[in-house]
Amino acid sequence: QSVLTQPPSVSGAPGQRVTISCTGSSSNIGAGYDVHWYQQLPGTAPKLLIYGNSNRPSGVPDRFSGSKSGTSASLAITGLQAEDEADYYCQSYDSSLSGWGVFGTGTKVTVL
Amino acid sequence: EVQLVQSGAEVKKPGESLKISCKGSGYSFTSYWIGWVRQMPGKGLEWMGIIYPGDSDTRYSPSFQGQVTISADKSISTAYLQWSSLKASDTAMYYCARRGYSYGLSFDYWGQGTLVTVSS
Fold first, then answer.
1. Considering only residues 57 to 96 of chain A, which have any Cβ-Cβ distance to chain B shorter than 8 Å?
2. Which of A88, A89, B13, B64 qualifies as a FRET site for A50, CA 20 to 30 Å off?
3. Residues in B touching A108 (Cβ below 8 Å)
4. Averaged pLDDT, A31-41
C-alpha cells in the first residue's frame, strides 16, 4: 500500500477548478523530497505533468499547477476541459524505503 | 528524440519464467536511471525498482525485493525485468521509465507498457 494518499475521485464541470491532494508524512514529502505529478489518459502510459512540486514541462498547459506545503502537495486544474478526464498520480521519495520512490494512490478526474 | 520501447505482450502459465525488455534510444543510456512500474488491472501505479545501467546499481522497493530481478545490458541500451516463477498475481501492465535530471528526478520518459497475463 502507498504511503502517499490521494482522494479516489474528483469531478467538475467544464471550466471549473478542481484540486487533488497528496498527503504524505515526515519521511517523504515532509522530509523535503520533491513531488511530481503524472497524468494517465485511458489506455495510455503515464505522462509527466508537474515536476519539482510546481514546475511544468514544456508543452503542458498552464491550466495545470502544483504546490507543496508541509507533508502534503496539491495539483490544481483550472478551466477544466473534457480532455483532462484521466487518472492523476503524485510521486515522491521516502526515507523509509531507503530513499527510493513511491507513487500516490491515484485520483480519477471526471469532467461532468 | 528520447524513446523507450518495450517488448510485446506476453501470456504465460503459473510457474513459468519471463524476461521483458525496455530499449532506450536518443540519449546516453548509461547516464540515466531506468525504473520499472507495475499497474495491476484497474489499479494504481507501483514503484518496483530502479537500475543505473552505467554500473548496474539496482535498488528494489521492499514489496518487490526477491520477487523480480532487474538488470541491464548497456551494450544494447536495454533494461530488463524478469521473473523466475510467475504467479497469477503478476498479471499486470509493466512500464519502464527514465528518471531524468532536467525535471527534478521525475520519470520524464515512459515506455508504452508491456502487458503480462499469467493464467493456467
1. 57, 87, 89, 91, 93
2. B64
3. none
4. 96
User: Is residue A87 a contact partner of residue A9, using CB atoms and an 8 Å limit?
Assistant: no
pLDDT averaged over every residue in chain A: 95
Beta carbons of B91 and B18 less than 8 angstroms apart: no
**Closest Cα in chain B to A95:** B61
Whether residue A38 and residue B45 make contact (CB cut-off 8 A), yes or no, is: yes
SS3 A51: strand
Q: How far apart are CA A73 and CA A46, in angstroms?
A: 19
For residue B110, which residues of chain A lie inside 8 Å, CB to CB?
Answer: 45-47
Note the pLDDT of residue A99: 59
Is the Cβ of B59 closer than 8 Å to some Cβ of chain A?
yes
Q: Could you read off the pLDDT of B36-94 as tens digits, one per residue?
A: 999 999 999 999 999 999 999 999 998 999 999 999 999 999 999 999 999 999 999 99
CB contact under 8 Å between A45 and B107, yes or no, is no
In this prediction, residue B102 carries a pLDDT of 82
Q: Widest CA span of chain B, in angstroms? A: 44
- Count how many residues are written for chain B: 120
Distance between CA atoms of residues A54 and A56, nearest Å: 7
